[in-house]
């Protein structure tokens, strides 16, 4: 059992240089060497791993209890001949002015002999005072030897004699050599392009050590380390596949975190946000750790398919931890050191910017302000920060309490499936956090498997044609007009090109599918009218005399009302609803049940409703329709949709509940109470969208989920209407992220939940006109806009036609 700690008098005294050199020396001697770093620093560990070509780790007594520290140390010792532990900062420097978390603390917990590095530059006799102070500052300092760094050969004899008289072993010296200095940038480590240069320096350092250090004396001290008793920590095994970003931009990974996941049975799938086009297949979770994304912002931005895949998967509910650099990558924009801004994943509506100086540094506790994936409301976990970049939209889902002075700040984003913020989390010091993350991954895996079994069509969905998207975008840029002059309309036509696999876009045969169904929740007094209105308006659509029919006539759009769950069998005059001409009969049941009393429908009824929506799109595909819009008709459906949104987005009912078709204050109060009760009853299904939809309803929403799935299966763009259609879109996307590529959003509407739903989908509304009519009217309003945009796309002159140079697209517009 050979083990030593290399500690120092302070940061910059040469600890990392000497540890790297010793690792190389021992490696050259044929010794299998392992290295660990005291404290939360993952950068010095990367130096060690580059020399040793093996995984390293950390020992942090602020994060971990004594038994965990010993366990982590023993895991390294059992696979090596000698273990080197590198200290952190000055030997006694811990949290604040205490020793908790210090190198001294780790040496005491593990009973590890310590070799002190003294930076002798500018000193001679004062060296003795420094060493005497360090050896006598605390009882049993564990310091057994000294290495004199930056000391000339002519002073070594006197320095060695001085420490011998103190009972400390002199172990040699290192003279100052410029060519052996390991430089750092704002966070420390070299880039991959400098690896060869780095190795040359380490070889130079090791060569010097072999001449002027007492290597045998160091090994002798290491051999005196005592063996620690440890208790093996058996981890709960999970069959999970976790994607881990790892490349030049994302290189700050706690190896111990990855080890924790491996010990728990997880398979790690590494990928490069710089070079790969998409996330690995069949993943159940995602880790976006820190690094230097700001130095690679342009290249990251140019990898559009990866940015989009990550954004789509996170929005669909893939559990994700995004720390520091990973957090910056999730912003809309990221600023480089030169203040250039580049588009990123767009999950967080803000910009990561260069603050010009260190923002936050040190240990902290992170307390959840609401229930999140990693912690319930008011629960805390420990973390560490070190960053120069900041965010103009830092979030407020956690209270961050700095350990050194108890100062607080609100920051970070947390949901049932996402943690995003600057604080770094160490799993072995926050095992509950690690377990909760893996629990979320297991739920995602189980729900995905269940969804695929219940709706096999989900496995048939592929992404849109990216080549067609690129060509359509290039065509827009070649048209003689200002770049991106038609804004979202250009993006939508480009999206349709990708869906239709051609730049020759056609949307001349169009229809709006209106799902009509009743909701049992109307029993609770959440509407002005009764269920009989649903049947009347649905039949009016079939007759071509409802609002959407009048508007559809202006844009040559067919209205297809679908009876998927109308409660009434007959109209007031006795006319049969089920056989009403022009009303497609796909009724699953006579309206849903009151979800405050029982689940709205059975699983079989839910899946039937979804499949009826898919079959309706299949029919439209066979008839040659090349674009569809969604609509709905059903008294009480703003209550069901808002309840779903409140749970799926983890928002308070008061914040997302609107007046629907015109509730008064007392009606609105009842509606909020009903949605609050729904959240209490069914909130546990937030990460299981099918179970949630089965519990709350409605059938119209389930049918629309099927329409979105069908659009993706049959390659037809689908335009979403208002809040009910948006909730259905979110559920569909959570079932299969690729569906998002086939959805176009029309308007934002008046319902309060709509903006949050669009943010969750990563979509922008074209129309902001406070629409609240329903029936698909907002979606149908988009078709004339598409027609006008297509006229420009197809007929306008190009820069080539008029023989002038096109605008250069710098990606800034």
Automatic annotation (TrEMBL):
Residues 4-180 form the CobQ/CobB/MinD/ParA nucleotide binding domain. GO terms for molecular function: ATP binding; cobyrinic acid a,c-diamide synthase activity; nicotinate-nucleotide-dimethylbenzimidazole phosphoribosyltransferase activity. Its cofactor is Mg(2+). The record marks 424 as: Increases nucleophilicity of active site Cys. It catalyses: 5,6-dimethylbenzimidazole + nicotinate beta-D-ribonucleotide = alpha-ribazole 5'-phosphate + nicotinate + H(+); cob(II)yrinate + 2 L-glutamine + 2 ATP + 2 H2O = cob(II)yrinate a,c diamide + 2 L-glutamate + 2 ADP + 2 phosphate + 2 H(+). Pathway: Nucleoside biosynthesis; alpha-ribazole biosynthesis; alpha-ribazole from 5,6-dimethylbenzimidazole: step 1/2; Cofactor biosynthesis; adenosylcobalamin biosynthesis; cob(II)yrinate a,c-diamide from sirohydrochlorin (anaerobic route): step 10/10. Keywords: ATP-binding, Cobalamin biosynthesis, Glutamine amidotransferase, Glycosyltransferase, Ligase, Magnesium, Nucleotide-binding, Plasmid, Transferase. It comes from the Bacteria. Comprises of two domains. The C-terminal domain contains the binding site for glutamine and catalyzes the hydrolysis of this substrate to glutamate and ammonia. The N-terminal domain is anticipated to bind ATP and cobyrinate and catalyzes the ultimate synthesis of the diamide product. The ammonia produced via the glutaminase domain is probably translocated to the adjacent domain via a molecular tunnel, where it reacts with an activated intermediate. This is Cobyrinate a,c-diamide synthase. The lineage of its organism: Bacteria, Bacillati, Bacillota, Clostridia, Lachnospirales.
């Amino acid at each position: 059992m050979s083990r030593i700690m290399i500690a120092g008098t302070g940061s910059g005294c040469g600890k990392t240089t000497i540890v790297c050199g010793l690792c190389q020396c021992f490696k050259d001697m044929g010794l299998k060497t392992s290295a660990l770093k005291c404290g939360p620093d993952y950068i010095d560990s990367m130096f060690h791993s580059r020399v040793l070509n093996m995984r390293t780790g950390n020992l942090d007594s602020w994060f971990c209890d004594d038994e965990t520290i010993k366990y982590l140390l023993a895991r390294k010792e059992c696979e090596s001949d000698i273990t080197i532990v590198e200290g952190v900062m000055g030997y006694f420097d811990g949290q604040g002015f205490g020793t908790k978390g210090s190198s001294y603390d780790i040496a005491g917990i593990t009973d590890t002999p310590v070799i002190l590095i003294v930076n002798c530059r500018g000193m001679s006799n004062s060296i003795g005072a420094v060493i005497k102070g360090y050896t006598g500052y605390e009882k049993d300092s564990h310091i057994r030897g000294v290495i004199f760094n930056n000391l000339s050969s002519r002073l070594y004899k006197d320095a060695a004699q001085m420490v011998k008289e103190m009972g400390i072993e002199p172990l040699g010296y290192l003279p100052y050599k410029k060519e052996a200095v390991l430089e750092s940038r704002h966070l420390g480590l070299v880039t991959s392009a400098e690896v060869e240069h780095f190795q040359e320096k380490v070889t130079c350092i090791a060569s010097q050590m072999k001449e002027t250090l007492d290597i045998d004396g160091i090994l002798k001290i290491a051999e005196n380390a005592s063996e620690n008793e440890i208790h093996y920590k058996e981890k709960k095994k999970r069959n999970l596949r976790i994607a881990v970003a790892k490349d030049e931009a994302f290189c700050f990974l706690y190896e111990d975190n990855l080890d924790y996941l491996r010990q728990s049975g997880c398979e790690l799938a590494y990928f490069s946000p710089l070079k790969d086009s998409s996330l690995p297949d069949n993943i159940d979770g995602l880790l976006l750790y820190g690094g230097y994304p700001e130095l690679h912002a342009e290249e990251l931005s140019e990898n559009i398919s990866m940015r989009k895949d990550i954004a789509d998967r996170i929005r669909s509910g893939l559990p994700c931890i995004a720390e520091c650099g990973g957090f910056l990558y999730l912003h809309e924009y990221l600023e480089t050191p030169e203040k250039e801004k580049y588009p990123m994943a767009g999950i967080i509506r803000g910009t990561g910017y260069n603050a010009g100086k260190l923002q936050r540094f040190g240990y902290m506790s992170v307390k959840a302000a609401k229930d999140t994936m990693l912690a319930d409301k008011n629960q805390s976990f420990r973390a560490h920060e070190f960053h120069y970049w900041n965010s103009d939209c830092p979030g407020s889902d956690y209270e961050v309490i700095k350990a050194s002075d108890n100062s607080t700040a609100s920051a970070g984003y947390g949901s049932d499936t996402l943690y995003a913020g600057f604080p770094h989390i160490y799993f072995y010091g926050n095992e509950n956090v690690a377990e909760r993350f893996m629990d979320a991954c297991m739920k995602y895996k189980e729900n995905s498997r269940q969804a695929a079994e219940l709706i096999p069509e989900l496995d048939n969905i592929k992404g849109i044609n990216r080549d067609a998207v690129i060509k359509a975008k290039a065509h827009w840029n070649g048209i003689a007009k200002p770049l991106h002059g038609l804004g979202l309309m250009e993006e939508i036509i480009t999206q349709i090109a990708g869906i239709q696999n051609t730049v020759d876009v056609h949307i001349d045969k169009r229809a709006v599918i209106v799902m009509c169904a009743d909701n049992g929740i109307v029993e609770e007094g959440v509407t002005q009218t009764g269920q009989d209105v649903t049947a009347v308006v649905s039949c009016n659509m079939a007759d071509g005399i409802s609002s959407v029919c009048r508007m559809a006539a202006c844009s040559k759009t067919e209205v297809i009302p679908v009876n998927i769950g109308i409660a009434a069998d007959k109209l007031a005059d006795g006319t049969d609803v089920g056989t009403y001409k022009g009303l497609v009969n796909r009724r699953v049941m006579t309206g849903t049940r009151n979800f405050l009393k029982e689940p709205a429908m059975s699983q079989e009824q839910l899946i039937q409703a979804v499949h009826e929506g898919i079959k309706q799109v299949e029919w439209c595909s066979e008839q040659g329709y090349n674009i569809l819009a969604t609509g709905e008709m059903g008294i009480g459906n703003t209550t069901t949709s808002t309840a779903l949104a409140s749970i799926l987005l983890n928002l308070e009912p008061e914040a997302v509940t609107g007046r629907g078709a015109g509730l008064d204050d007392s009606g609105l109060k009842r509606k909020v109470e009903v949605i609050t009760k729904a959240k209490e009853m069914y909130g546990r299904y937030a990460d299981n969208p099918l179970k949630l939809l089965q519990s709350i309803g409605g059938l119209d929403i389930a049918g629309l989920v099927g329409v979105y799935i069908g659009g993706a299966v049959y390659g037809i763009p689908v335009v979403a209407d208002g809040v009910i259609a948006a909730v259905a879109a979110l559920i569909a996307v959570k079932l299969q992220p690729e569906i998002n590529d086939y959805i176009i959003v029309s308007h934002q509407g008046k319902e309060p939940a709509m903006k949050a739903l669009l943010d969750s989908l990563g979509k922008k509304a074209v129309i902001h006109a406070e629409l609240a009519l329903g029936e698909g009217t907002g979606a149908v309003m988009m078709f004339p806009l598409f027609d006008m945009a297509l006229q420009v796309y197809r007929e306008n002159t190009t820069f080539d036609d008029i023989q002038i140079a096109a605008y250069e697209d710098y990606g800034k517009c």
